[in-house]
Design brief:
Strand content: 25-35%
Bound molecules: beta-D-galactopyranose
Length: 496
């Protein structure tokens, strides 16, 4: 038994707009913003209310310099094709807060680890366009650890590995930006990164200036080799945030200290857009601290800390790796970390099956998590089941729940044993509800609309199937083992 998952074709049908309804940008900095539209090509875009300095190109990418003054601009976005038209109101919020909705994109780590190269990054960005992921709202292409040259240049300037990034990071940024996407890099708040490349501590200003010059849009800042205490973390992440703010770019800061110093209590106030809440994820579904359920259980407790511009990050997605990710399929344990594999030199993870991958993505969406795919997007071998993976990652109804402008992380509601019901309030009084079967055996779970949506009945849509179920008083989830159903409920007016 598998759950029905719609296969949405981003290049067919009448136009639809999928981009976030609220977009943050710092005053006077470069904006590269894809409007994210699907439908039969060609598509024609028009944007009303665009501040001077910004234009929209034929691909629907808004480019230019954001207004110099803080303030909110209402953009009226319209897209048409031979089959019809769609409109969307987008708020462009010029101010200090970036990532008003969780960032969508890709990160190199889970799949490529130390083998990342300029060629892979550019081919991944191209694949993000070719697969329609950009048109569904994915924007960031993030290079994780190991982009670095063996040493800094004389004078301390950072430089990229001359073999794997022969033309440097700026050349990669140019290619990624030309596709309407954004580029991220990675560093560490100590003298070395986790992979023993040069770190950023003491070089914050030089690094931030170089990143801005290269055209970098996001920095993931790690914590290997850094002090244990929270005060140092607040200080070092704060120093890097200020250095990034002193540049002329909007650069998102992603905090990665694995949730050890409770970053949900301080990282948002420092101006970080999201922070890791757990250990690194590995390609396994279970309850261990490195499995999907173990990580989700921990991140679910932190719902009250998330909001627009500040997100809990339960780590990257495993969808599509299927036990083949370079850093997620094998865990070497020279020491005793983490506990579940003590006594073994390594542990091999076989990956998630289709249903588990669908549950993994469902939970991340319900938790308003950053959705950073981290598999080989360029793989065109049909034997690797990429149709399913693509269907999972490009379901517009599901992505819209993650990207909802209210920015609320879902909370666990009372659930029968062996299940999780997660409730996420959405804009316009709507509510997303997911029901997960934590056990291997299939089961049917009923949830009363009155218990989750604040009204006796609601118009219900099955997000994964992209199907309207009409007005219901009960959500009925027929779940395979480890499966998740996701519904969007629009409460119907109460009868008196
Ligand atoms: C870890 C981090 C991973 C990855 C890795 C790179 O600390 O949690 O996501 O960035 O370092 O070495």
């Amino acid at each position: 038994m598998t759950l029905p998952v719609a296969h949405f074709d981003p290049f067919a049908g009448a136009p639809r707009l999928h981009g976030a309804a609220r977009v943050g940008i710092r005053p006077g900095t470069e904006l590269i913003h894809p409007l994210a539209a699907t439908g039969e090509r060609p598509l024609r875009f028009a944007v009303g209310g665009l501040p001077s300095g910004l234009t929209v190109d034929d691909e629907g990418i808004v480019r230019g310099l954001a207004p110099a003054e803080p303030g909110t601009h209402e953009l009226d976005v319209r897209v048409e094709n031979a089959l019809g038209a769609a409109t969307q109101r987008v708020e462009l919020v010029v101010g200090d807060i970036l990532c008003l909705t969780p960032p969508l994109g890709w990160n190199s780590w889970n799949v490529y680890a130390h083998e990342i190269s300029a060629d892979i990054v550019v081919r991944t960005a191209e694949a993000m366009v070719a697969t329609g992921m950009r048109d569904l709202g994915y924007q960031y292409v993030n290079i994780d650890d190991h982009w670095h040259a063996p040493e800094r240049l004389a004078g301390g300037r950072p430089a990229a590995d001359p073999v794997r990034f022969p033309e440097g990071i700026a050349a990669v940024a140019e290619r990624v930006h030309a596709l309407g996407l954004k580029l991220g890099v990675y560093s560490d708040a100590a003298h070395l990164t986790c992979g023993n490349c040069f770190g950023g501590h003491g070089y914050e200003r030089i690094d931030a200036e170089a990143y801005a010059e290269w055209g970098v849009d996001l920095l993931k800042y790690d914590w290997c080799y850094a002090p244990k205490d929270r005060a140092s973390a607040v200080e070092r992440y704060g120093t890097m945030r200020r250095a990034l703010d002193a540049t002329d770019r909007s650069i998102v800061l992603s905090v990665c200290e694995w949730g050890i110093r409770k970053p949900w209590r301080w990282a948002g106030d420092l101006g970080a857009s999201y922070w890791r809440t757990t250990n690194d994820i590995f390609d396994t579904f279970g309850w261990s601290p490195l499995g999907v359920l173990g990580i989700a259980r921990r991140n679910l407790r932190l719902a009250s800390y998330a909001g627009p511009g500040r997100w809990n990050d339960p780590d990257m997605l495993l969808v599509g790796n299927r036990g083949r990710g370079l850093s997620t399929s094998v865990l070497r344990t020279p020491n005793s970390w983490p506990k579940p594999v003590r006594g073994r030199a390594f542990w091999r993870f076989g990956g998630l099956d289709d249903t588990q991958a669908q549950t993994h993505l469902s939970l991340w969406v319900m938790m308003a998590a950053p959705l950073l795919a981290s598999h080989d997007l360029t793989d065109d071998d049909p034997a690797s089941s990429r149709d399913v993976d693509r269907a999972l990652l490009t379901n517009p109804d599901v992505l819209a729940i993650d990207q909802d402008a209210l920015g609320r992380q879902g909370r666990l509601a009372a659930s029968p044993r062996g299940t999780w019901t997660v409730v996420k309030p959405l804009t316009e009084g709507r509510v997303a509800v997911s029901v997960t079967n934590l056990r291997k055996r299939p089961r049917t779970v009923q949830v009363r609309v009155a218990d989750v949506a604040g009204s006796a009945s609601a118009h219900v849509r099955d997000a994964w199937a992209m199907a309207d179920l009409g007005v219901q008083t009960e959500l009925v989830a027929d779940l395979p083992g480890h499966g998740t159903a996701m519904f969007v409920c629009t409460p119907t007016p109460q009868q008196h």
